[in-house]
Write a structure and sequence with these properties.
Strand content of chain A: under 5%
CATH class of the domain at 31-218 and 231-287 in chain B: Mainly Alpha
CATH class of the domain at 373-491 in chain A: Mainly Alpha
CATH topology of the domain at 31-218 and 231-287 in chain B: Cytochrome Bc1 Complex, Chain C
Strand order of the largest sheet of chain B: 1-2
Largest interface: A-B, 22 and 24 residues
Order of helices and strands of chain B: HHEHHHHHHHEHHEEHHHH
Shape of chain B: globular
Order of helices and strands of chain A: HHHHHHHHHHHHHHHHHHHHHHHHHHH
CATH architecture of the domain at 31-218 and 231-287 in chain B: Up-down Bundle
Radius of gyration of chain A: 40 Å
Distance between the termini of chain A: 148 Å
Helix content of chain A: 55-70%
Strand content of chain B: under 5%
Number of helices of chain B: 15
Oligomer: heterodimer
Helix content of chain B: 55-70%
Radius of gyration of chain B: 23 Å
């Protein structure tokens, strides 16, 4: 009571010594009074976009801002709600921000009207641990009293501030454990090591920050198929900036990565076949710590999936040669974004063979010979497999049971695929061992299929012989019946 | 050589009195008339049954009647066992031809009224063998444990299950449980190689005994004109003619078995969805197709139940024809019996074709 009395006295004194302030009675009594008592919220609100647009404290807190008397102004009967709690915070914001009449007609705003709708469908709108409210409210990111436009450098949602704003919760292990214990909390640390993060820290608002990839109000869990960072959606999300030549101008990198990736074996698997085993951009570049893989780490990055190839390459003579020439290991032969399916054409010394780029007949005879022999073995194995397939198909088409040989065809194919892996050892002996296994299987299948085809003709010849015997017997029997019946007729 | 054979004959004759049998056979005559050709279908059915027994025993040497091994053992028979493919193919083709020959035999007996007194028991044992033959087909169909057989058995036993009161116990008896599983396979195997052959042997024995004892039935009106009556000796004439037809049938089976070997298909997968176009064997097709045309509800009775009951009743009436066809029993022509038979033949042909095309 005494505190209220004190406030009233101070307020009257303030009016007496500041006659020019009398007009505030007619405008916002809440702000006037809270400024008077040096309330920090009031000071912040003075800079708030909402204040500039003519909103008063009462627009969010309720009550009657025109009343001088504090009790009357803050009377619950006049709609005073005090500090909005829980979901009421966002409801209060949405009262105007989701209302076209208010936003467009009254304030001529171009802000989208569906932020609340989006927030309600986002992962942030899950129930909090208390179960009484949802996890994130508007003020969690935008703040309460000092709200400034997003473009304002002081806004917590300004591109340069977003990483820190998100990290308030996402780098808080204790807080995150309550909601998603498996989610890492080092995204900000990783982000700071990324090209995006470094540029953001250096003051480049164009560099991607959290919202650039995850979205803002509509953020979904990364494993939600609708999420912008879900593997099948991620390339398009990255391309949003990286394929925009105008946007990327000045960064010194190409803007056709998405186009190339979409044509690549990885892109087709991921984007067309929706194969989640195929890599998206982040699988090679990292996500929060995204950087282009360095020359020395290319084979490690590719090796996370193509483990055998990477292992063979690491022990091959090429490893040393590539390292000394600072050649990116896998990328040198296979390319990067536009990696096409590795066909046998890449192997050998003619046509599109990549070996011939370095291994010439006159300058590097050993490598040239190895590449040529490997290709010759591959071609022979393909021919043996094709021949076996045709024989099996012929036997099958003739209706012969050829299941075992058909199953063994897979082993030839397996040997062929294995030779493709063994190429990365660049060791002819190792390569030939696998190829020989394929040749052995091909001979076995060929033998079985040929036997089946022979058996087919044997059956037909057998049928012919059997039919002839049966027919001969039948004719003989017929003649015999006629004879005895004739004899019987004569005897009668 | 002749003396030696004569010696063996005397040795046997002294013990089992073969001369009486030969004398009996020598006195046995087969009537010759415009319907004589139908007499041969009984013999053809018998020949096909003998083929089934022989090939069945050979298959039994390698077949394994368990859920895990049934399909693989048939595959083994088809691909590894010398002439296994031929034996299995003959068994499958001969099974179908046996049913066909038995059906023709049954209808020829029906239309020539050969079931009339004193051959009622011959007719009844014949009908029992036809039903058993269908049982052989149904139980044998599942034995390869392939996809089609599995689902067809499921559908077939489901249909049996809807019969009021006795349906459910029959279904469980056939399946060895609530669903078609490995237990059903073991059960069908048991029916196919032990229970049905045992019963069939009894009915066949009685049937053949009666045919020999009573001789061939003569068509109505045959006895009215003694001047045109002709006969042929059963031995050797009819027997040799039978043998000639058997040789031709054997040739047909050989051609079918080699040129159209019976396929094995895909192994049954209990958890796979039923493939489209599941159909029973052709001799069940007319009933299966008829059930499709009956509305789900007829008055207050379930359509499927009504259909099954009607088929059951029709089958019973058909089986009991010697007892209700009084006119034929009295030696008179019975037009309505012929019409009923024609209706049944046309119905079966029409609905089998519709089922085939569906």
């Amino acid at each position: 009571m005494s505190e209220r009395f004190g406030l009233r006295v101070m307020f009257i004194v303030f009016l007496l010594v500041s006659p020019g302030k009398a007009s505030v009675f007619a405008q916002d009594q809440c702000l006037a009074c809270h400024e008077l008592i040096e309330d920090n919220h009031a000071a912040l609100f003075k800079r708030d976009i909402h204040h500039t647009k003519g909103l008063s404290c009462a627009d969010c807190h309720g009550g009657d801002a025109s009343k001088e008397d504090m009790e009357t102004a803050m009377d619950p009967k006049a709609g005073f709600i005090g500090i909005p709690q829980g979901d009421r915070i966002s409801e209060t914001c949405a009262k105007c921000h989701s209302n076209a009449a208010t936003m467009v007609k009254q304030y001529d705003s171009i802000l989208p009207l569906d932020q609340m709708e989006h927030l309600q469908t986002s992962v942030h709108w899950d129930l909090s641990t208390s179960g009484k409210e949802h996890i994130v409210q508007c003020t969690s990111c935008h703040g309460a009293h000092g709200i400034v436009p997003k473009a304002n450098r002081n806004s917590p949602v300004h591109p340069l501030n977003i990483p820190a704003t998100c990290a308030k919760c996402h780098s808080n292990a204790t807080f995150m454990r309550d909601y998603n214990p498996s989610l890492p909390v080092d995204q900000l640390e990783k982000y700071k090591t990324s090209v995006h993060g470094k540029r953001n820290e250096g003051g480049d608002p164009k560099a991607a920050e959290c919202a650039s990839c995850h979205g803002s109000h509509e953020i979904l869990a990364a494993n939600d198929v609708r999420s912008r960072v879900y593997p099948t959606n991620l390339p398009l999300t990255c391309s949003h900036c990286h394929s925009d030549a105008a946007y990327m101008r000045g960064y010194g990198i190409a803007s056709d990565q998405y186009e190339q990736f979409a044509k690549s074996v990885h892109g087709k698997a991921l984007l067309e076949k929706k194969d989640l085993g195929a890599p998206a951009c982040n699988d090679c570049h990292g996500n929060h710590g995204a950087v282009p893989p360095g020359v020395e780490s290319v084979s490690k990055v590719c090796g996370t999936c193509h483990a055998l190839n990477a292992e063979l390459f690491a022990t091959s003579p090429h490893k040393k040669a590539f390292d000394s020439r600072k050649l990116p290991e896998c990328e040198t032969c296979h390319g990067n974004h536009e990696i096409v399916a590795a066909t046998d054409e890449l192997l050998g010394v003619k046509g599109r063979a990549v070996c011939a780029w370095c291994h010439k007949e006159d300058s590097n005879i050993k490598g040239y010979y190895t590449a040529r022999t490997m290709r010759a073995l591959t071609d022979s194995l393909i021919a043996a497999e094709d021949s076996a397939i045709m024989l099996v198909a012929e036997a099958e088409q003739k209706g012969m049971e050829i299941g075992e040989a058909k199953f063994k065809l897979r082993e030839i194919r397996q040997a062929r695929l294995e030779t493709r892996t063994k190429v990365h050892s660049f060791n002819l002996k190792q390569f030939q061992e696998v190829a020989d296994g394929g040749f052995t299987d091909a001979s076995a299948v060929t033998k079985q299929a040929t036997e089946a085809i022979d058996q087919y003709y044997f059956r037909r010849w057998g049928l012919l012989v059997a039919s002839l015997i049966i027919t001969t017997l039948a004719v003989s029997l017929f003649v015999y019946i006629r004879r005895i019946e004739n004899e019987q007729a004569v005897n009668r | 050589m002749k003396n030696k054979l004569r010696g063996i004959f005397h040795w046997i004759d002294e013990r089992v009195n073969l001369r009486d049998l030969i004398e009996f056979m020598g006195k046995k005559y087969v009537p010759i008339h415009e319907h004589s050709v139908w007499y041969y279908f009984g013999g053809v059915s018998l020949f096909l049954f003998i083929i089934q027994v022989v090939t069945g025993i050979l298959l039994l040497l390698y077949y394994k009647g368990s859920e895990e091994l049934a399909f693989e053992s048939i595959n083994f028979i088809m691909s590894k066992v010398q002439f296994g493919w031929l034996i299995r193919s003959i068994h499958s083709w001969a099974a179908n031809l046996f049913i066909l020959a038995a059906i023709i035999h049954m209808f020829s007996v029906y239309f020539t009224r050969a079931y009339r007194k004193p051959r009622e028991i011959t007719w009844l044992t014949g009908m029992a063998m036809l039903f058993l033959g269908m049982g052989f087909g149904f139980s044998g169909y599942l034995l390869p444990w392939n996809e089609l057989a599995f689902f067809a058995t499921k559908v077939g036993t489901d249909i049996a299950g809807v019969v009021p009161l006795i349906g459910k116990p029959i279904m469980i008896l056939m399946r060895g449980g609530d669903d078609v599983t490995g237990a059903t396979l073991s059960r069908m195997f048991g029916f196919h190689v032990a229970i049905f052959p045992g019963l069939f042997a009894v009915f066949l024995g009685v049937h053949l005994l009666l045919v020999q004892r009573q001789g061939m039935s003569e068509p109505l009106g045959y006895e009215d004109s003694p001047e045109t009556q002709r006969t042929m000796p059963f031995f050797p004439n009819f027997l040799l003619r039978d043998l000639l037809l058997w040789l031709l049938v054997l040739n047909v089976i050989a051609v079918l078995a080699v040129l159209f070997p019976w396929e094995l298909g895909q192994k049954a997968d209990l958890f796979a969805p039923a493939p489209s176009g599941i159909k029973p064997e052709w001799y069940f097709l007319f009933m299966f197709q008829s059930l499709k045309y009956i509305p789900a509800q007829v008055l207050f009775v379930d359509g499927e139940v009504l259909g099954i009951l009607l088929f059951g009743l029709a089958g019973l009436l058909w089986t009991l024809v010697p007892f209700w066809d009084r006119k034929s029993a009295a030696g008179k022509k019975s037009r309505w019996t012929t019409y009923a038979g024609l209706f049944v033949v046309l119905y079966i042909i029409l609905f089998t074709i519709l089922g085939w095309l569906a």
